[in-house]
Amino acid sequence: MLVPTIGFGAGSAVSVNGRQLFVNGQAFTIKGVNYEPIPVGSRGDGASAGCLDGGSWWTDRPSYIADFPLIHQMGANTIRTYGIMNDVSASNVALVRAMLDAAQANGLYVIMAYYPSHFTPVTDPAFQATTQTDFLAAVNAYKDHPAVLMWALGNEQNIDNAQNVAWYPFLNSVLGLAKQADPNHPVTTVEGECPQCTPAISYGIGSGVKADASMTNLDLWGITSYRGKSFNGLFSQLASTTTKPILLAEFGKDAYNDTTQAEDQAMQVRYLTAQYEEINANLSATNSTNALIGSAWFEWTDEWWKDTGLGATCNTHDTHPNFTRAGDSDDPNYNEEWFGLVSIRPINAITNPSGTSRTLRASYITIQGLLSPVAASSSQATGRIFNDTVHNYPNPFRVGVEGTKFVAFTGVAATVTIKIYDAGGQYVASLSNSSSGPERLELHWDGRNRQGAYVSSGLYVARIEGSGGGKEEKQFRRIVAVK
Q1: Domain shared by 118 and 59, yes or no
Q2: Predicted local confidence at residue 281, as pLDDT
Q3: Nearest CA-CA partner of 58 in 11, 2, 113, 8
Q4: How far apart are CA 287 and CA 292, in angstroms?
Q5: Between the CA of residue 317 and those of 255, 303, 313, 436, what are the distances in Å?
Q6: Shared-domain flag, residues 368 and 424
Q7: 65 φ/ψ angles, rounded to the nearest 5 degrees
Q8: Are strands 148-155 and 52-53 parallel, antiparallel or unpaired?
Q9: Residue among 56, 71, 15, 7 at smallest CA distance from 360
Q10: Which of 5, 27, 192, 287 is deepest in the core (most CB within 10 A)?
Q11: Which of the two residues, 312 and 189, has the higher pLDDT score?
C-alpha cells in the first residue's frame, strides 16, 4: 500500500484565501471521486419495489475498508459524499466517525454533505428548523475530525426547486451559523445546470440572490457539469461572475455507448482524459488567478438503481438514458447506471443483495496514470496477485447469526481459494472465487464446516491462496468465532 502523503492533524485547518484552498497552510487541489457505493439489489433513496435501502453506505465497513486503499492508490485525495450528515443519532455518528478514521488512514479527506429535501417548500418552517438543527448538530459532531475537508449543504437544489429564490437567503443564514460553530472548515453548496429543462436552468452564480454580496457566508461554489469532452469555457465564465473559488463537484461520462448499445470503456477513457486536461489547466493552486480548486469524478461505482426507464430494476444493469446533452456530438445520452470507474456485478442479487463484486475499468487505470503515474507503474510491475492484505468482517463473528465476509482485491485474473482450519490444524471448510482481471472479490463463510454444521466458538485460521498468470501468493488470517 502507498504511504499517504497528506499531513493530517487534529482537526485539520482548512481555509479559502482568494481563489485558493489551503489545508494546514498549504495550497491544496481537490483530486476527488464521488463515493456512494450502492450494492446491486439496493437503492440510494430508501427501500422500495423489492430493493433494499443501500443509502447509508458507511454502515458497510467491509466495502469502504476495501475501497479506500484503491481510491488512494488511484491518486485521489478526497471523497465527496451524499447525505452523510443527515442522521445525527449517536449510533450513526459513531459509524460515520469510524468511516472518517478509515479515510484518514488512507490519506483521504471527506467533503461532508447534508442532503435536504428537494421538493419540500423552502419557506416551510418545519423544513427550515429540521435542516438547520440537523446540519449544525452534524458540524459539531465531526468538526474535530482531521479527515473533514469542508461542509456542503444542498446538491443541485436549484434544479428541483426551480431556482427558488427563497433557498439562498436561508442557505446563507445556516452557513453563517455553521461558520460560527466551526471556523476551521469552509462551507459550500452545489449547483447544477439543466439545458434540457423547460425552461432551461443555468447556474446563475454571481447574480441576483447568488451574487457575492448576497452570499456573504458561502466560501466557495460547487457545481456539477456534464457538457461532453469539453467544459466549453465554463471555468473562465464563472470566474467573471464571482470572486469565489469553484469546486467541480461532479463531472464524468458513462461507459455505455448508445450507438453500439454496448459497454465502451475506451469512449469513457477519451472523455475523462480530455476533461482532466481542461481541469488541470484551470487549477488555482498553480495559478492563483484561476478559479478552480479541484474536482471530483462521478463516480466510484456503477449504480444499478438509477435507471427510471420502463422495466428498469435495481437488480439489472439497465441502459435507458437518464438525460441528454445536445451539445455533446459524440454520445449525447448519459446513462447513470454506467458512470462508475469501477463496474459492479451481483454475487446473487436476490438472496444476497449486499454481495457485490467490483472490477476496475480502464478509466481507473487511466486516472491513476494521470494523478499518480509512479503508483500506476509500480502497481503494474509488482506481479502480485493481491493488491493489499485480504481482510474479513466482522471478526469476531457470531456463529449461526451472521457470517464473515472476506474481501480480496486481485491485480490480475486469478482464482482465490480460502481454506479454514481450527486451532488444532484440522481442515474445516473452503471457499473459492475467481476474477477476470483487476477486481474486488467477496468470499463468504457462514460458519459451517464441511458437514454443514455450525462450528464451535474459538480461534480459526484462514489460509488464503491466489493463483493466476503463472504466479501464486499466500496470506493467512486469524478468525474468531463466538456464540
Answers
A1: yes
A2: 94
A3: 113
A4: 10
A5: 12, 8, 8, 19
A6: no
A7: -60, -35
A8: unpaired
A9: 71
A10: 192
A11: 189
CA distance linking residue 271 with residue 238, whole number of Å: 22
- Residue 463 within a domain: yes
Cell 473459492 sits on residue: 432
Report the C-alpha gap between 367 and 297 in whole angstroms: 10
Q: Which residue has the cell 489551503?
A: 22
Q: Count Cα neighbours of 206 within 13 Å in the Cβ-side half-sphere.
A: 13
Query: What are the angstrom distances between the C-alpha of 213 and each of 6, 169, 208, 289?
Result: 34, 11, 9, 20
Any idea how long the chain is? 483
Cβ neighbours of 83 (radius 10 Å) = 17
d(CA 216, CA 298): 29
Element holding 168 (H helix, E strand): helix 167-181
pTM over 0.85: no
Q: What cell was used for 394? A: 466482522
Q: Which domain holds residue 34?
A: 14-380
Identify which of 41, 131, 66, 83 has the alpha carbon closest to the alpha carbon of residue 409: 66
CA atoms 144, 83, 370, 20: torsion sign: negative
Decide if 111 is inside a domain: yes
Residues 443 and 370 both lie in one domain: no
Interval 102-158: pLDDT, tens: 999 999 999 999 999 888 888 999 999 999 999 999 999 999 999 999 999 999 998
User: What are the residues whose beta carbons fall under 8 Å from the beta carbon of 165, sequence distance 6 or more?
Assistant: 208, 209
Q: Indicate the SS3 state at residue 56.
A: coil
Q: What CATH number does residue 392 fall under?
A: 2.60.40.2550
When divided into structural domains, the chain yields a total of: 2
36-73 pLDDT, tens digit per residue, is 999 888 999 888 878 888 889 999 888 898 899 889 98
Residues 373 and 421 in one domain: no
Contact 427, 419 (CB under 8 A): yes
SS (H, E, C) 280-321: HCCECCCCCCCCEEEEEECCCECCCCCCCCCCCCCCCCCCCC
